Amino acid sequence: MEYNAPNTRERIAARRQQRRAAPPPAAPRRPPAATPPPGHQAVPGMWRSLNSWLLKGRILSLALCIATLGVLAYTLTSPRFSVWQIRVEGNRILEAELVTDLADALGRPIWFVKPAAVAARLRENAYIASASVDLALPDVMRIRIVERRPEVRWQAGGVHYLVDGTGKVLGPARESATDDVLVIADTSHLELKPNDLVDVDAVHLAQELALRLPVELGLTPAQIGWDYGLGVFVRGPLGQTIVFGQSENLDRKLAILNVLLQDQTAFTYLDLRSSNPFYQNRAPTAPAPVSAPAP
Question: Are 89 and 198 in the same domain?
Answer without folding.
Answer: no
